Automatic annotation (TrEMBL):
Belongs to the cullin family. Residues 1-26, 369-408 are annotated as: Disordered. It comes from the Eukaryota. This is Cullin. GO terms for molecular function: ubiquitin protein ligase binding. One of its GO terms (biological process) is ubiquitin-dependent protein catabolic process. Residues 394-407 have a biased composition (Basic and acidic residues). It comes from Dioszegia hungarica.
Amino acid sequence: MSMSNSPARRGKPKIRPPKKIGPETSMKDTWTKLSYAIKEIQNHNVSKLSYEEHYRYAYNMVLYKSGDQLYNGVRELITEHLNHLAEELIVPAFPRSGGTAGLGRSSGGGGGAEAVERALEGERFLKSVKGVWEDHTGSMRKVKDVLRYMDKVYTQAHSVPIIYEVGLHLFLYTIIRSTSPPIHTHLIGSLLSQVQLERDGETITRTTVRDCVDILLRLQDPAAPGAGTQRALSVYQTDFEPEFLRRSGEFYEAEAGEVLERGDASVYLKNVEKRLSQESDRTAHYLSPLTSPALLALVVSKLLTPHLTAILSMPGTGLRPMLDADRLPDLRRLYTLFIRVPDDVGRNALRTALKGDIEERGKLINEGGVIPAGAGPSQDGAAAEGGAEDEEMEGKGKGKAKEKGGGSEKAVGGAGALSLALGWVQGVLDLKDKFDRVLDEAFGGDKAIQTSINEAFQTFINANPRAPEYLSLFIDEHLKKGTKAKSEDEIEIALEKTIILFRFLSDKDKFERYYKTHLAKRLLYARSASDDSEKGMVAKLKIEMGFQFTQKLEGMFTDMRISAEGANTFRNYLNRHGALPLDLQVSVLTTSHWPPSVIATSPLIFPAPLTNTTSVFQAYYDSRHSGRRLTWQGNLGTADVKVRFKNRSHDVNCSTQALVVMLAFEDVRGEETLGYSDLKTITALPDADLVRTLQSLACGKYRILLKTPKGREVSPSDTFAFNEAFTCPLARIKIMQVAAARVETGKEREETEGMVEEERKFQIEACIVRVMKNRQTMGHNDLVSEVAHQLSSRFIPTTSLIKKRIEGLIDREYLERGTDIGTYRYLA
């Protein structure tokens, strides 16, 4: 503002103090001159005004006690000017729609030309408000300079706002909150309408909206708490934001219903994601960033929170179809949005749905893996179960003998049961791989969701009572020879995955029992594909369960190693005492290390050639060990013999039991036969073992014996003859011993369950004694809880079973009841 026409002077200009006027000078004239100057400033005619002169007028009015007249007079001038600007610039720009369209849902008639016209009308109105604001604030800055002395002296003395703040307050009440004319209604309505037009896809001028929002942010509500301070609420927060959030809530509530009706969860989630992005962008560019948290929370509360279950369970497009089709982007979007719901409501809903989905899938796997009761036998080298002696020995006879036999046979039953068992484990592993991938790629490895996934797997895996057996069979299938060729890396990966499933098992003691049986068979029949893989698996179990869990497993490896090392010692013994007619390799097994079901004693009468050989080893063993007793396990041995037929001889590999049966025909001539009862008397084999052996020799691919009548089943009335006419293009043939099914039958499973329950009784009692010995006195509930906790790593004991074992220990005087009710005391 120039406000001075004095000629330029040389040198530094000197500001002269305002010239005092006498009291005789009329304040009325001074105010007249000053008010004229203020009006000229408001009309932008400042070039002919002198700043010094009019500053002196204001100075004198304050000095001579006319500050009230000056302060109130300026207020009136500002008010008049604002009313004039409103009538001249703002009222003519009122939108024809009334500016009250707000944020309501579009009914379909608001698009096209009408929407464009609404946007232009709203823009013109907002520009008019912005123009008046700029006009007003520009003139107020000049007026503030003229009235600087009043602001410094009068306002402080009378505790009233400075004139610039007065101008802002007057602008608020005269323009922004004006109800007559209804500027306030049009302003708020126009701002809301512009936002709605953009939400509906129309283009608006964001800078215009931002300028008006800045005005509301600049103005403070004098009636709001903390007015005049930095913490005071702005007019934006008191007048615009509440209405904006209320109508936004109505808008999104209605939109949620419309989009949900389409029945597409993916489309719905994409819309939510788009709306959140749009609102975040909106608050960043032309609304206040302070609105962002509340606005985004509102979008979540309207579009997500009430509809979590509906989204997850939406037919054809919800969580289940997303998982079925591995739609990872949709699942990632689902997770990202759900975790925005406060108080973990969204995450918990997702966890519950995932857990239910996995349990349902697991139930289908369990139903598909049910083993039929009474499944038949399968081809395997396993032996029948039986008792155990103090020490057991497996003999493998290899040598030359004029024996009769040969043949090989495929599985005759139980293959379907084994396939179901392996398929169950593979199905669980595939399901685990699927959800591990979903967890990592869609859910960001969320630990809470991972916990729910693990709980679901644990639930349905333990719902299958045969899970421990199936898991051990699966490991057996990967570690034994004869399966599909697998690299060591593939085997290692499979074993790592089975350890994960092993962690889910609650009955780990059952798994231990099955695993010991399968490992024993692999070791005894030399079926392990890799010793390193075998030992690696035991090492993994040791890490999971500790030394005690794998102690007997490691004992099996020790027995096999010592037996292999002892072969050289036995060979040296033979060199000193004379060679045997047969090559004999013996594995000496410690009874306590091996499962009774594998090394069960099976009666077998060895013929003379074998008896002479075993007696030599017996003498050798007795010379090295005293007080030990050997029991020969004919059911665990194998033999290589040369069998002469009418046309040629064949090298036959068979079980020791098959060799004993073939030797029974050595003295049978011509067409003579031996009946089933004859063979039973000669061999002393139990019926089950004899039937399987005869099936191997007479009913398989290589029929060394001829059975009358023909057929695949063996009965006590059958007779057998040596097949002199046997022919085969192979020089060496292998006759596989038909054995009990690898998968337990219903009866076998009941027996296993009974043995496991019996073992658990001893383990529970040992745990109770261990706890009580340490604590001496303990309450019933505390004792039950502690015992259950300590045994939980192997199995989950029931409260009733623990209570029974406590009673048993009391009866045997290991414990006694305390003086207090419900307490026990340890008896040393």
